[in-house]
Amino acid sequence: SWYRQQINRKQYVMIGYSDSAKDAEMMAAGWAQYSAMEKLIGLCESQDIELILFHGRGGTIGRGGAP
What we know:
3 helices; 67 residues; two-stranded parallel sheet; elongated; single chain
């Protein structure tokens, strides 16, 4: 497809923590992120796209940042 050609079969996705930690308890937020990553991995594998996941921990601890 046009999009696959544009991204050269590589998709970068940042997993963010600050919003999920604000909206849910830490364990629930972590599980939701894990579940989302599993779905993304499956989707990209089925479409022959290399998935590069990276974690966007930043900011204060209260917003999900790492100490």
